[in-house]
């Protein structure tokens, strides 16, 4: 069976050796050595000033909304995982959608301005599948209207834009280290900022607002990463370059074999991007064709996923207006299997089955 993704598991003995440190110190959460070491390694490797490891990739979005004081309306993309929108509603704000660019699949800055009202406090945009947003245009809008930008960079581990980690852009950037993501800690995530004062606010908020055992800086919640999660991260991290390299190889095999078809569209990766090949999305001419291809692949025990479907503006409790580009893309896009130990022969077989279904 081939699924859209497969979790990279390090050698169990490597994981156990890291866990032994927790057993030795009897310290399994509340920012022990393993969490601190994971943060240091990531910050050093990607040249990031401030990072806080968290227990998943959703809480950092909620904490960022709180820390930046966002209220009222937040403009966001209809083409993302549900968490990008649901955190806005969960924090008592209103998600206001702006449609996407049909080539990059990211929120279209030219659609954002039309949605800005006196109630708009910020933007939450996803770098979809690890492809950086039009960061310069977003910055301009944020400055002009004095609003904040949060990037949901859940897919972006290892991505660079203009020679810098993509986590360095926006007021706050967040990542997910969920088991399905390119780098993982089982469950886990992180938040990043370049601003020391904001970092401190985020830091307090992720640990109940504690400022020492008996004092509180302000309202907080619990988003701490445990030592057990960090141990997984530290066991996986040394393999990250290998993982990236392998994904690039397989990604290129897909492109080489599928680009010959004029019935398929691929995501346009932005210029100046060192891409991480976190996903391999392919877009069909219609939803009927997608269903056909998906059924053929399923018949061979191959299970691609409809990322992202449905378009978030159509989710009933989010009350979005119509977003024609996102809705059309959502119906026609399929993410093909892509993971470290996927075989090149399997990629070739998937490509053959797609060509056969299209003819
Ligand atoms: C995975 C994902 C999240 C949520 O991350 P968790 O670690 O599962 O909480 C948020 N946004 C996007 C775009 C994601 O893909």
UniProtKB/TrEMBL annotation:
InterPro entries: DegT/StrS_aminotransferase, PyrdxlP-dep_Trfase, PyrdxlP-dep_Trfase_major. The modification N6-(pyridoxal phosphate)lysine is found at residue 181. Keywords: Aminotransferase, Pyridoxal phosphate, Transferase. It comes from the Bacteria. The active site is at 181 (proton acceptor). Pfam families: DegT_DnrJ_EryC1. SUPFAM superfamilies: PLP-dependent transferases (SSF53383). GO terms for biological process: polysaccharide biosynthetic process. One of its GO terms (molecular function) is pyridoxal phosphate binding. Belongs to the DegT/DnrJ/EryC1 family. PANTHER family: PROTEIN RV3402C, TRANSAMINASE. This is DegT/DnrJ/EryC1/StrS family aminotransferase. The lineage of its organism: Bacteria, Pseudomonadati, Bacteroidota, Flavobacteriia, Flavobacteriales.
């Amino acid at each position: 069976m081939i699924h859209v993704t497969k979790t990279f598991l390090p050698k169990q003995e490597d994981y156990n050796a890291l866990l032994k440190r927790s057993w030795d110190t009897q310290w399994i959460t509340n920012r022990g050595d393993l969490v601190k070491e994971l943060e240091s390694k990531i910050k050093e490797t990607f040249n990031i000033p401030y990072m806080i490891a968290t227990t998943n990739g959703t809480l950092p979005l909620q904490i960022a909304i709180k820390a930046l004081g966002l209220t009222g309306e937040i403009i966001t993309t209809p083409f993302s995982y549900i968490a990008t929108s649901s955190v806005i509603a969960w924090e008592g704000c209103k998600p206001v959608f702006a449609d996407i660019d049909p080539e990059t699949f990211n929120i279209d800055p030219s659609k954002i301005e039309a949605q800005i009202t006196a109630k708009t406090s910020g933007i939450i945009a996803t770098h979809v599948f690890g492809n950086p947003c039009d960061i310069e245009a977003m910055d301009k809008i944020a400055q002009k209207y004095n609003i904040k930008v949060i990037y949901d960079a859940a897919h972006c581990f290892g991505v660079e834009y203009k020679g810098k980690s993509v986590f360095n852009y926006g007021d706050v950037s967040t990542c997910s280290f969920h088991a399905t993501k390119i780098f993982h800690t089982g469950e886990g995530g992180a938040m990043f900022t370049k601003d020391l004062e904001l970092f401190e606010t985020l830091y307090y908020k992720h640990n109940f607002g504690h400022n020492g055992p008996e004092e509180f800086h302000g309202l907080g919640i619990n988003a701490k990463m445990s030592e057990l999660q960090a141990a997984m991260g530290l066991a996986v991290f040394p393999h990250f370059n290998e993982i990236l390299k392998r994904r690039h190889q397989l990604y290129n095999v897909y492109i080489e074999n599928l680009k010959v078809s004029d019935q398929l569209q691929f995501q346009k990766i932005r210029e100046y991007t060192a891409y991480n090949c976190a996903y391999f999305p392919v877009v069909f001419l219609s939803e009927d064709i997608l269903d056909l291809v998906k059924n053929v692949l399923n018949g061979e025990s191959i299970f691609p996923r409809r990322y992202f479907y449905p378009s978030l503006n159509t989710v009933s409790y989010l009350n979005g207006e119509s977003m024609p580009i996102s809705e059309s893309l959502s119906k026609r896009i399929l993410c093909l299997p892509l993971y470290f130990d996927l075989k090149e022969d399997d990629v070739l077989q998937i490509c053959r089955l797609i060509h056969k279904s299209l003819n």
